[in-house]
Amino acid sequence: MMNNKIYENTPDNIEKASEIIKNGGLVAFPTDTVYGLGANVYNAKAVASIFTAKQRPTFDPLISHIADIDFLPQYAQTDSRVMDLAKHFWPGPLTFVLKRTDNNPSLDLVCSGLPHIAVRMPNHPLALKLIEQSGVPIAAPSANKFKCISPTTAQHVADGLANEVDMILDGGACKIGVETTIIDLTGKKIVILRAGGLSKEDIEAYTGEEVLVSSGHANLPSAPGQLLKHYAPKLPMRINVNEDDVSENEFFIGFGNTPKAQLNLSPSASLEEAAANLFAFMRLAEAQNEYNSIAMAPIPEYGLGLAINDRIRRAAYKE
Ligand code: TXA
Ligand code: MG
């Protein structure tokens, strides 16, 4: 079905979208990771409408998207470690949690009242043009209803939020397919709050330091949005299932050498390919009428496998 909220990637449409952002509306836009639901960070009413549109609790803060590394020191507390990481990994699938320095009251809601702010620079020309032309950072969560699967195409956004959003900019399928890796840079050690599109190994190779992974324990800060049940498909899901243990009424999503799989995340066992396919395949799987659950093959726990396993564990979590 055609959706009249979806707009092609043209200079006119980007201009139109930036006017909507400036005027306090909501624009869904593509990034390198997943589609975002964007609003002007300096318009508290617009930011509040993100939470309403997604039915998301306001204790879950939003990421600010910027288009220029030089803007970062005006917005958050930086030091040479932060700027070096930004220069190396931005634009790209990495979000920083930093001390907030901008006292504009509309950021209270963006940060959910926390003294910290999350910032990233997406690696997608359309997103960067939209932010530049809007002239403000854009607050954007993933463009899906709370607890649903993140969107990796414009149509996914329309399926969940067509009535809530003013415009959906179509930039094609997202290349990375899982959300950013979020790192806390407010302490001495770098701590991953959410595994994502940039691997721990890549961060460690660049910094030469051990990077910690937050397990959500009280002694380590954690991304408040990391609820156990998240990314929920409509059918129940089992993970780490070997091909021979799949039952007849289960839709099997394979990985690597799994010839009996209905869909295979990556026949060649590439974790990058698997991440890019993950959310779209989970959407396809949950839409199957003739199956009553989803089974997924084991995914190795390194590189992007950390992010993939994090998402499917949450999808499979039983309350
Ligand atoms: O790839 C992505 O990061 C996508 C694209 C659109 O940029 N965005 C995204 O946003 O995944 P969202 O809202 O679905 O997830 C953001 C996560 C939440 O878990 C939130 O709790 C955490 O970031 N977060 C935001 N601000 C934070 C802060 N100040 N401190 C700790 N965690 C924060
Ligand atoms: Mg999300």
Q: Provide the structure class.
A: alpha/beta
Rg computed from alpha carbons, rounded to a whole number of angstroms: 19 Å
Oligomeric grouping of the chains: single chain
Assess the beta-strand content as a share of residues: 15-25%
CATH homologous superfamily descriptor of the largest domain: DHBP synthase
Straight-line N-to-C gap = 34 Å
- Sheet bearing the most strands, described? 11 strands, mixed
List the ligand species.
Answer: threonylcarbamoyladenylate, magnesium ion
Q: What is the class of the largest domain in the CATH system?
A: Alpha Beta
Helix content: 25-40%
Query: Would you list the SSEs in sequence order as H and E?
Result: EHEEHEHHEHEHEHEEEHEEEEHEH
- Overall average pLDDT: 94
Question: What is the strand tally?
Answer: 15
Low-confidence stretches: none
Give me the CATH architecture of the largest domain, please.
Alpha-Beta Complex
Observed structural traits:
alpha/beta, four-stranded parallel sheet, 319 residues, 2 domains, DHBP synthase, eleven-stranded mixed sheet, single chain, binds magnesium ion, binds threonylcarbamoyladenylate
